[in-house]
Amino acid sequence: MNAVLRPDTPQMAHQPLDSRGRPLRDLRLSVIEACNFRCGYCMPADRVPEGYGLDAASRLNFDQIETLVRGFARVGVSKLRVTGGEPLLRKRLPALIARLARIEGIDDLAMTTNASLLAPHAQALRDAGLGRLTISLDALEPARFAQMSGGRGQVERVLEGIAAAEAAGFSAMKVNCVVQRGVNEDQVLPLVAHFRGSGHVLRFIEYMDVGSCNGWQRGQVVDSDSLRARIHAQWPLQDLPSQYTGEVASRHGFIDGQGEIGFVSSVTHAFCGDCHRARVSADGHLYTCLFASTGTDLRPALAHGEARFTAHLADLWSARADRYSELRNEQRSARRGKPVEMFLIGG
Ligand code: SAM
Ligand code: SF4
Ligand code: SF4
Questions:
Q1: Strand partners, 263
Q2: 0.85 surpassed by pTM
Q3: Which sites bind [4Fe-4S] cluster 2 (predicted)?
Q4: Centre of ligand 2 from the C-alpha of residue 37, in Å
């Protein structure tokens, strides 16, 4: 396989384009497959047993992760998002963050977390070089929040985590809310009221048909357009331009100057054309689409060192043709194999 190459910078090796001309810019790296929550849309408690994913031996170690990220940086990745499962369950996470923050070419280092364990770790993560935080929060009402976390979470802990992160110097955090019809639609306006003017950016995510254990149905999706109209009726909004090519969320500013919100509309507005993202599971498998069924084990190539790994990665990316969201209606019925679960590749 021959990678289509873009002009190299001195530090960079091959910077391949995939078969649809898309470069690789963005890596979502799962550091753990376990989670302390059981959100029904991701890891339902009746499908994923207690204690799932606690086999540390199958995970990439920090040396492997560092080599892997160096390789990704050499093929063009500049944005790295650490995720899970719940990344704060990974032991010595700040030490890993410190290693990743030093890698040449990575100029945006972020993490997605449910924030229930964030408060005691926020300062250490900031000191280690973590640049940005995205926090998942589906409800403010305590009973609803607890129910949506599979009976495991308390909203107070998440709000404490956000406060601790602010005190540690994280600003303009993203707060993600997955909206499900009949489950938490009524939490949307209270969440907007809570975060308006805070400097953080609340983003509503359409419930996606990722994996197979959540039992997704199209009727459970709340379209971003209708949600925007509901919010606009109370707090008028204006569309804002995207900040960079391939930005996942559309941006909408409050006309009264109280900040902005976003919508991630993978179901109703496919954005595959600009998709520059790769995902790696905690056990070192590459997924070139959120909706893939099979991953490629990167560990054999990693064992040959950074240079060989980088060349292998360039070949893998150049063969990529994914555009599931654009073809959702045809592909859902034709899907072969079991699609990978969100908690394995981190969103
Ligand atoms: N545990 C961390 C958390 O919840 O932030 C990180 C991993 S979680 C898989 C990453 C993101 O995926 C979360 O914001 C979560 O809400 C989102 N997510 C999970 N399943 C989803 C689904 N079926 N549709 C849309 N978003 C989903
Ligand atoms: Fe855990 Fe995040 Fe999935 Fe919820 S969305 S079950 S917090 S991995
Ligand atoms: Fe990217 Fe796949 Fe999502 Fe399309 S469906 S935007 S290719 S991850």
A1: 204, 250
A2: yes
A3: 272, 275, 289
A4: 6
